[in-house]
Amino acid sequence: VKVKIPFGNKYLDAVFSVPEKKPTYGVVLTHGAGGDMNFPHLVSLATCLASHGVLCLRFTCKGLNIAYRTKAFKAVVEYLKLSDDYKLSGVFLAGRSMGSRAAASVVRQLSQGDDDDGFIQGLVCLSYPLHRPKLQSKLRDEDLLLIRCPVLFVSGSADEMCEKQLLENVVSKMKAPKKIHWIDKANHGMAVKGRTADDVMEEINAQVFSWVRENVHQQHK
């Protein structure tokens, strides 16, 4: 279902992947610095989630400024929260690369304020860009260290923007419940020599779905 989500004086293009049964949880998903919501990994993940009963709303926001991307992500979360068509108990925010930085920033902002109503259940970071290529001294970890809700990282062990040891160090300092799933030998774009893109995507999708399912159930215990 295609929708246009109001954002300031314009609209963000978005698509709902809707499960057959009425969903109680959703995932909001966005792309990296290049591309848009039709990036194959996002489409694949959205289809997988919807087929397992989780609503997925993916959107396009082209700005390369992280503050702008964060604002757009917030607008999408608000839109979903107020939606009459889908009454959700909670959402997970997810993004790829720069999109995961924006998602982390939104989670931090929305869960630190007094208006934290528990609507945001967790954060999924696909290829989180912890540093620029070859610039390991400047880590983009400030939001991660302040987040309290569960976080899943899915990263390639050969990601040139997320050195394995550095991410593990940051994660060890995080107060939130967290998990890292390494895609062996994958680069930042999740390409692995000798494996098809579909094969890698299946691995990512399975990880994300099972983690979302676990974290939904934990909240209900």
UniProtKB/TrEMBL annotation:
Gene3D superfamilies: alpha/beta hydrolase. InterPro entries: AB_hydrolase_fold, KANL3/Tex30_Abhydrolase, NSL3/Tex30. It comes from the Eukaryota. Residues 27-211 form the KANL3/Tex30 alpha/beta hydrolase-like domain. This is TEX30 protein. The lineage of its organism: Eukaryota, Metazoa, Chordata, Craniata, Vertebrata.
